[in-house]
């Protein structure tokens, strides 16, 4: 059976909703040091300090991972699935048998949940699970909607569990019931229809939060009266009635889906609703239920999971906030972990007490019978010293179990290595050595921190982002109310669901025996592999070349006798120091006398060459540049065999092939080429070739291609003969041709093998971006994956015919598909190490590439940054934000550093979180090369304070002055910047009146301050002096959203924290003629009376509509009629949509219900299609003097025409861009990745009926 779901506009239309983009050229962040050998078959990493396991992303399965973690942290679902044994589900071994009924999906879910609970690995894999879904690799790379997956996965599970004791699992835990009723006011007859739900889908647009949305859905009722009556079947006539919906049955687990993705039918484009949408941690559903006579606790639900979507409607990523109901994880923040609990004042004893032997022995002595499981021993260690074993001791001492095995005289491990006991009759020497220190430990180790003991009182929250698991606080959930990273699905559990005490902090609870045994065996196998891998990774092979066994010959070092007798292989622990290595070699070489110097050497084609002398005996080997398989030359540091040895890369010997004409004994020259190898130092002059061959004068040609069969000879001018071989771009294997004159070219033409064309496959484009005049703007450079970037750069400088000085002051930078220059590539890298593909484009730019300790950063001023307009800077990674970065910017742009702050640009190309720790270094803040820093004006407010920009909101008259729509009091505007935009609060009929926002300044205010205090503080801004505002009561406050007034803020005495404003809030203030006190059910509307025959409106008047009796069209029409003193049947009203320049009439006669065909009732005015809210404009037409059906104005006609022309221009631009892209794709070697076609999500399930 194949489940296939297609929901229009909600899911399938976003088939490639979260598709990620991949660039052709990698923006590689270059590290330092040499690359070690590749680690093959390395076991998965163990769990982090949280002791929780993540799930690996297969490429596009973040939506699946988030939902699976939610189900895993639903203990009732997990344990109900575990209760189904092999006798009901079948066995994995029988899945390929034709007659066997193996329910593979539940079996794979069981195994995945067991791995998440018990397997000691950082992240589990879902490969087997997705294979059971019937998904291919393409499906695993394609991203889908998590709300769609939730329904399809539950449907697949229901089908898979047919005929088992778990057939009602989904229905029992997640299914609820809604009842829709129409009640006749005359006969009280109730017509009802019942429907089941798996999740509640609630609107986000124009709704403040979850409780508000549920109130609109299940409390507000629509009244059919006046000219909107209901035909009752019992009364058989039109009567007054009321329609409402209620929750009849609540499931134990309530799933809420937020409709954040919408479609704009005017603009014909998709968009994501990012406005503020609040939801409580605990919610009482009693007001929304049909039956409310039960105990109040039956209606209380607690939030335990929030699936979050980050990004827009065409790209993004899912992660999930999880509440650890069973206390399975270790909840502790990084800053808390970094504070060591052991506080020793005696520095002499500090090192001894910090030794793991002391601490582990002290922990075991506190346990009953000195016995403890090894896993709990690691947790106790974390609680005692504030940092895990892996973070503090693994690098030096290896895994915990291996450490216990190595100290068997003190610790006794059980046969299965699951528990450890402290030996009482062990080594007497060990006992006496540690006895005094143990007592010191007991005095200095304080009790367990309260932060950890909080696990006992209440569950904690974690952020699970694929493989990564991090602890969070409850207040962090509020950050997901709004923005591009915001809540998308909410999961609540009934508060009366209590967990048994034995399940607390016990991951083995409820897991079947066969899965326990499987996970235990897998953990033992993992431990064995990690021990083997740890041993392999912490040792390396060194090849010792003994100086007395070598002599200097033909420009390099060579063995005196043979290679085998001159080289000793040594396996050594890389965790030891250089002094330990030197001492070990001393012990091996008993014959050695005098000083011993260790140097890094390398075998080159000419022989052995010494590059670097190793200094600093205290250095740990793994921190030096010694790699596995390194050649170490052991000598006295001065000479070998009486010959002084030059060291370093500058004098590296080059083996060159020198070609010249054969000369007879009489001096005659034959047309026969002699090829002979010669060795020269890299820093020697090219002219030494003539001296070595005893040729008095001649012309030297070099092979610019550098590979046999690809020769392209170039003569070296006389003025360049004093250049070194390296400056000429020569390397090992390069060919050099010696000739007598420039004129005779017969040799080159006769040797046809030298005249070949450049291979068109192995090349790179190098563009001249040095801003220097050159005959060539772009050249092709042949290369292989092992070609050094330095060689490519030198070739490019030469072929572009640029100045030779650029060799010391230039670098190569990759160019991405958008033409942006990426980070410079270090000269020492090969193309493979730099991750540069053949056919890529590089830019030759002025300036040196950053060193290994430096960062290459982009920076810009302000948050509105266009791609490609950033500036660049190279800084040390150890500099701090305050002392160096801000000071640098202040000197460059001449501003005061305290009035600005830095933000890191996020992947959406928007200003991310601020760099609050201005005294921290860039390395500590995890800033990497290639990151973009934005310099934002404004000082960061202290913790608990808000920095709020204040705007003045008032209608602007024809004269350009600011005038009130209530008293028309004029005042000039001369401060700040002005926003003028289409707004629902505008005056659409008056072409000379527009709504604008005037910037007044910023205020810094506490989150605990009230709205009245914010208004009072705003009145202290200088521009307020000319506005003549009497008191804060004469100001109305709005939030600013999309440069327009948004949400109306009521209740002056309410603290700002309770408004959930967020960190980037902006407020606009509107003047009032007199104070007002709006209630929670009052709606503030702008009403405008239409002027008959002129297609325009009178100035707007404020109307307060009490919607407590119902937000229905009839109620609003009655209120407007009373306001204008007109009969209700003699007016028509319509809501204005300024962004569309359209009017939507509001009529009470909008429902017709018959017995044969019933149309769904029009929702209240807060819902579709009106979405009525504070500040909306309502047009009023007096039918006594104006019987025209049209509400529009001349301004609306102009606006619609402009929108039409704009849409036409966009369409033409898209067509032109498409044609240009098609041309580029047809000619480019690496085309851009096209957007994948839309595809529906399906899970394939066998038939078990």
TrEMBL record:
<feature type="signal peptide">
    <location>
        <begin position="1"/>
        <end position="19"/>
    </location>
</feature>
<protein>
    <recommendedName>
        <fullName>Ubiquitin carboxyl-terminal hydrolase 40</fullName>
        <ecNumber>3.4.19.12</ecNumber>
    </recommendedName>
</protein>
<keyword id="KW-0788">Thiol protease</keyword>
<keyword id="KW-0378">Hydrolase</keyword>
<feature type="compositionally biased region" description="Low complexity">
    <location>
        <begin position="1226"/>
        <end position="1240"/>
    </location>
</feature>
<dbReference type="InterPro" id="IPR001394">
    <property type="entry name" value="Peptidase_C19_UCH"/>
</dbReference>
<dbReference type="InterPro" id="IPR038765">
    <property type="entry name" value="Papain-like_cys_pep_sf"/>
</dbReference>
<keyword id="KW-0645">Protease</keyword>
<dbReference type="InterPro" id="IPR018200">
    <property type="entry name" value="USP_CS"/>
</dbReference>
<dbReference type="GO" id="GO:0005829">
    <property type="term" value="C:cytosol"/>
</dbReference>
<dbReference type="InterPro" id="IPR028889">
    <property type="entry name" value="USP"/>
</dbReference>
<dbReference type="InterPro" id="IPR050164">
    <property type="entry name" value="Peptidase_C19"/>
</dbReference>
<dbReference type="GO" id="GO:0004843">
    <property type="term" value="F:cysteine-type deubiquitinase activity"/>
</dbReference>
<dbReference type="Pfam" id="PF25822">
    <property type="entry name" value="UBL_USP40"/>
</dbReference>
<keyword id="KW-0732">Signal</keyword>
<comment type="similarity">
    <text>Belongs to the peptidase C19 family.</text>
</comment>
<feature type="region of interest" description="Disordered">
    <location>
        <begin position="1209"/>
        <end position="1249"/>
    </location>
</feature>
<dbReference type="Pfam" id="PF00443">
    <property type="entry name" value="UCH"/>
</dbReference>
<dbReference type="GO" id="GO:0005634">
    <property type="term" value="C:nucleus"/>
</dbReference>
<dbReference type="GO" id="GO:0016579">
    <property type="term" value="P:protein deubiquitination"/>
</dbReference>
<dbReference type="GO" id="GO:0006508">
    <property type="term" value="P:proteolysis"/>
</dbReference>
<feature type="domain" description="USP">
    <location>
        <begin position="53"/>
        <end position="495"/>
    </location>
</feature>
<dbReference type="InterPro" id="IPR057763">
    <property type="entry name" value="UBL_USP40"/>
</dbReference>
<keyword id="KW-0833">Ubl conjugation pathway</keyword>
